[in-house]
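hey so i finally got around to running the thing on that chain from the lab meeting. sorry it took forever, my laptop kept dying and i had to restart like 3 times. anyway pasting the input first so we r on the same page abt which one it is
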Amino acid sequence: MNLKLPSQKVKQAFSGMAFVLTLLSVSALLESCTDNCDVTSTYTYYEPVYTTLPEIRASVALIAPQPIDQVGKIYFKDGFLFVNEPGEGIHIIDNRDPSNPIPKSFLKIPGTYDLAARGNILYADSYVDLVAFDLSNIENIQEVGRLESVFATYNSLGFYPSDTWGVVTDWKAVENVQHTSSECQSEMQAWGGFWHRGGVMFADAASFSSKAAIAPGNNSGAGIGGSMARFTILDDFLFALDGGNIQSIDLQDAINPVQKGTASISWDMETIFPHEDKLFIGSCSGMYIIDASSPANLDWISTYSHVRSCDPVVVDGDYAYVTLRSGNMCQGFTNQLEVINIANLQSPTLEKVYQMTNPHGLGIDNKTLFLCDGSDGLKVFDIADRMKIDENLLAHYPNFDAYDVIPFNNVLMLIGADGIFQFDYSDPTNIKQLSQISAQQ
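ok and heres what got predicted. didnt touch it at all, straight out
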């Protein structure tokens, strides 16, 4: 399944090198080479640590609640919050009383970054696999299905050489590696480092994070995800962003999901948002509108392009709201909220731009916009007049770092670097904080 994008919209082909750039969060290239490259340099070498697939698949477990160390994606279903700990698992929180959320357990899933739920089944990635869990007994969550090797991202990195080795699950730093090159122009990679003995080398100043991600409408019993989601469910299908592709996975047999197709979009895709039978894809360079009425054969409708910047999107009626932010992985310097008219899906048009601090996730309920402005906290706007959003700030909570939100039934569920926050917005002019679960500092 390949979407037919017009030639001027076709993005750079997804490649292992391009994805390594995102994976390793490299923000500065090495100094360019001169004609005389016969030099010796000192590097920090990161050696890949492999874990076999049988080991990974055997290590799923439901354990006691764990402290929140690093927040990832957030999902709400039937009174419970599911909060991803990137690469480690999912925190299960009883949120039937938002003023007193109770951590119930931690679902240990190695290599997990995204999740979605439908009926009593929770779906999560685990490196190359999609895993299904039965939630009917929240006290005893069980793995009930697995679609193996459906996600190709890890294979694209070139670090998946055999079933014996498995996948890269960590990186081991080896300091002060000496590298002498007389042909550095051919050896230096576009992302700023060198392949070295099966690993990756960088200048000593380069940054590296072993936890970097490799990675609503009528959803027929599906839960609600945040705007930063890379998984979403429409009717009987799960759509999952996988590198430069969208995987279409049939959930009619809930515990035996079946891959039905792969659509190639763009290597820089970040987020996915469902609206009616359409998918709105946020990427570093624009918003893609996809027709999902035939789920196994997705059809491109149009692309709205913007300056290069991180980009989640939500939709409300005939308008899409996009936040653009600067950041190392996105290579951008723009921090703003864009309001885009999508009444004509074939020709989305920009209507208004509002400057922000460092906007991340956002959500809308009944003409109230909740915007996570990074280190500037939570901002709440009345958007009844889309041309005067900046004049209608209802509330501002500046003293924490905000990442993503889910507004539902007058309760706002928010995650950020400081943990999980919840607010009562039944009266948008008098928003009140209900609770907080702090993350470890």
